[in-house]
Design goal:
The structure is a single chain. Helix content is 62%, strand content 0%. It is mainly alpha-helical. The chain folds into 3 domains: 7-48; 61-96; 105-170, no CATH class. The longest helix has 20 residues, at 151-170. The mean pLDDT is 80. It comes from Sporolactobacillus shoreicorticis. This is GcrA cell cycle regulator.
Length: 175
């Protein structure tokens, strides 16, 4: 049977969790006469109850500058690796700074419509404006904009139509 946690044990553990000079959790567990698993679980419960804080390294102005300039260009995972942080830390800091990977395609609406009327494909529009291809496709579909298909899109469209006919034949709708 585990021994009950005293208030002093909990305070020590909570202090460890916010102190940058804190020992490794393994050392803290040894000091308290507990297993590492027990200390981790208790620390997790303390944090969930709002008593303990997470140990986090402060962001430098250089890191913030890199985050702001690179957030749209590379993945969170790659950015986290380069900054020596977790992907979640990158995502949270970007959110706090008001940075989002979501593209505001609506402000490019006129340009998208103009390029589509000129006969550009979705990929060409994406490259010219610098907005992700999926975002362009979604905007064009949502606003029912007529847009020229690329050869690959035409191939896929023909394949989908053929599959629909095959499926209807299998279900007995076509004889």
């Amino acid at each position: 049977m585990d021994k009950p946690w005293t208030e002093d044990d909990i305070d020590y553990l909570a202090q460890f969790s916010v102190s940058p000079e804190g020992d490794l959790i393994r050392d803290t567990a040894d000091f308290l006469g507990r297993s590492e698993v027990s200390a981790r679980n208790k620390l997790s419960r303390i944090r969930k109850n709002g008593q303990g804080e997470y140990l986090s390294k402060p962001w430098t102005s250089r890191e913030i500058k890199i985050l702001k300039s690179s957030y749209f260009i590379i993945s969170n995972k790659e950015l986290a690796y380069r900054l020596g942080r977790s992907a979640d830390a990158v995502k949270i800091k970007a959110s706090k700074l008001g940075i989002s990977k979501k593209t505001n395609v609506a402000k490019w609406g006129r340009t998208i419509r103009h390029l589509a009327m000129e006969g550009c494909t979705r990929k060409e529009i994406s490259k010219q404006i610098g907005i992700p291809y999926d975002s362009i496709c979604g905007y064009i579909w949502l606003h029912k904009i007529e847009c020229r298909n690329s050869p690959k899109e035409l191939q896929q469209k023909r394949w989908r139509e053929q599959e629909a006919v095959r499926y209807a034949y299998v279900r007995g709708e076509i004889k």
